[in-house]
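Consider the tokenized backbone below.
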């Protein structure tokens, strides 16, 4: 199968690239991956994406962007790339289901995945109380006590969302102040259901068949257990670059770009997979548009 331009990923970067490439008459094919809409589709509320003066859910925003891309002329393939070959000027992908796919230009928008804590009990209890998606799994803990681990925008957004349906939410944060935006911090501090375990790090998820508590260690070395039915990990993300190790230049875990050009001519990267600094949906969408414009020039 041969395409003019292929876009890997269907988050805000990938869909923005698809819109721009389609409007340029390039008939892009978007390989959606196993998580259509990317991580943003799991976000309960978005307040800072331009054009939405109220709020919009991540799922609704990504559905709208996908519809727009389709109307512009993009096509979609529910599949995932598991291999790549850029030798001798080729741009060839091996797909999990649909075999080999070749293209003249490739835009990599594979985003990032959850950074897990790595502490004892996490793997065993994942899906049994330990989660990384409050929107996906929060309803399972209605009326129960839960823990959120982290202090950035994602963690605090999760805490605000969970406070609506859970009995209590304890935010475990390794610092004595939040890293989240002021607007989110003000909202979470106003919620009676939300408590904070400052200067603490999780050291073990405990329980039998299901999570029963999270053990945390404070800065002075003392430990205590926080009883809970659910724990949501929100300590950052790891860029999805493993497919391109040895093929594209990677710096500090991210695809290295000049603009959106990677180290291989005709291969471009946008969004969180190439952004170590900002990690915002609007910036991912902007770099997706940049990548499509640069790909258009390359093909011309």
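A designed sequence for it:
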């Amino acid at each position: 199968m041969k395409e003019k331009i292929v876009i890997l990923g269907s988050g805000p970067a990938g869909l923005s690239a698809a819109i721009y490439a389609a409007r340029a008459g390039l008939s892009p094919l978007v390989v959606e991956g196993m998580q259509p809409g990317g991580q943003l589709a799991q976000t309960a509320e978005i307040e800072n994406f331009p054009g939405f003066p109220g709020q919009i859910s991540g799922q609704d925003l990504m559905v709208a962007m996908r519809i727009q891309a389709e109307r512009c002329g993009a096509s979609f393939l529910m599949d995932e790339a598991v291999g790549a070959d850029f030798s001798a000027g080729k741009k060839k992908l091996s797909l999990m289901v649909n075999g080999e796919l070749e293209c003249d230009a490739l835009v990599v928008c594979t985003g990032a995945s959850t950074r897990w804590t790595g502490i004892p009990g996490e793997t065993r209890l994942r899906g049994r109380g330990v989660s990384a998606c409050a929107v996906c799994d929060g309803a399972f803990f209605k009326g129960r006590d839960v823990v959120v681990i982290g202090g950035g925008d994602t963690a605090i957004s999760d805490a605000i969302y969970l406070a609506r349906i859970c009995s209590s939410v304890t935010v475990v944060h390794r610092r004595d102040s939040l890293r989240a935006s002021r607007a989110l911090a003000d909202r979470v501090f106003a919620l009676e259901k939300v408590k904070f375990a400052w200067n603490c790090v999780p050291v073990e998820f405990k329980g039998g068949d299901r999570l029963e508590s999270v053990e945390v260690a404070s800065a002075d070395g003392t430990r205590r257990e926080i009883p809970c039915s659910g724990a949501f990990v929100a300590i950052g993300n790891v860029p999805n670059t493993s497919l391109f190790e040895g093929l594209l230049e990677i710096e500090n875990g991210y695809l290295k770009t000049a603009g959106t050009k990677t180290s291989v001519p005709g291969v471009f990267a946008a969004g969180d997979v190439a952004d170590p600094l900002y990690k915002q949906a609007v910036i991912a969408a902007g770099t997706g548009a940049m990548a499509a414009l640069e790909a258009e020039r390359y093909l011309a």
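Residues 4 and 264 are 16 Å apart (CA to CA).
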